[in-house]
Amino acid sequence: MKNLKTTLGANAAFSASTGLLQLIFTKELLTVMALEEPIILQSIGAGLLIFSLYLAYLIMRPIQLLKETRVIVAMDFAWVFGSFILVVWNPFYLATAGLWILSFAALVVLLLALLQLKFLKEHNKKAL
Fold this sequence. Notes:
This protein is an all-alpha fold.
C-alpha cells in the first residue's frame, strides 16, 4: 500500500506542478507550443489542479484509494492515448517544442500509470 500511495502522490505532484505551470506561464507556453487560445492551457491546467487535489484526497482514505485506483489508471491511460493522437495527427498544428512537451508529459503519465497498476496488483495479491 505504501508504494501505491507514493506513486499516486507522485502523480498528484506532477499533475499539480504541470497545472500550475500552465496557469502561471500561459503566455510563454502559447508561444513555445504555437497555440493561440489561452483557454486551452488554462482549462487543462485547472483540470490538472482539481485532479491532483482528488488524488491527495484519495491517498488519505485507504479504502477509497483501492476502489478508485483502477479509475485513476484508466484516466492516465486515456491521457496518454489522447496525447498520442495529438502528437501523431497534430490537429492544432503545435510547434515541434510543443509536441516534445506533450510527449514528455505523456511518458511521465504512462510510467506513473504502469507503476500504479503494478502496486495495486501487488497489494491485491497480498490481500488474498
